[in-house]
Design goal:
With 147 residues, the chain is mainly alpha-helical. Helix content is 50%, strand content 0%. The protein has 2 helices and no strands. α1 packs antiparallel against α2. The termini are far apart. It comes from Limnoglobus roseus. This is SHOCT domain-containing protein. Keywords: Membrane, Transmembrane, Transmembrane helix.
């Protein structure tokens, strides 16, 4: 060999071709693949516990939402009922102080009575509300009950 001759580098050996899978998937078949951050070594018992925990948590969340909605419904219903009784007494005070005429007060009272009867399921005209100031006075004793 010539000492002045340069060594010619040999080309690297080509990498072997990857082996095909033992059974190629059929056309349109879904091939399962691991998620990039999937836990390694998750066994069936752990997966079952996780599923049960998630189902219990979801069930409790649904029950909690249902309780909140029922409480809101109850609260709003009470607010409207309180509003009806307080507004009737405020209209009565307005009538007694002279801000409403008797005709206006009767119209309001009849409308509110019909609305209340509808809520309670009472037939219209079954009973009427007493007029303010009509009836017994405070000095009169209450009527005796028939026993």
């Amino acid at each position: 060999m010539d000492p002045n001759a340069q060594a010619v580098p040999m080309p690297p050996e080509p990498l072997p071709a990857p082996e095909p899978p033992p059974h190629p998937p059929e056309a349109g078949a879904i091939v399962p693949q691991a998620a990039p951050n999937a836990p390694v070594g998750l066994n069936k018992a752990q997966a079952r516990q996780d599923l049960i925990f998630n189902m219990v948590f979801l069930g409790l969340a649904i029950i909690g939402v249902a309780v909140v909605f029922s409480l809101l419904k109850y609260w709003t219903r009470r607010q409207t009922e309180d509003c009806d009784t307080s507004s009737l007494s405020s209209f009565r005070e307005m009538y007694e102080s002279g801000e409403l005429t008797e005709e206006e007060y009767e119209q309001i009272r009849n409308k509110m009575a019909a609305k209340l009867k509808g809520k309670l399921g009472i037939k219209p005209g079954a009973a009427t509300l007493p007029k303010p100031g009509v009836g017994r006075t405070e000095s009169e004793p209450p009527p005796e009950s028939a026993s």
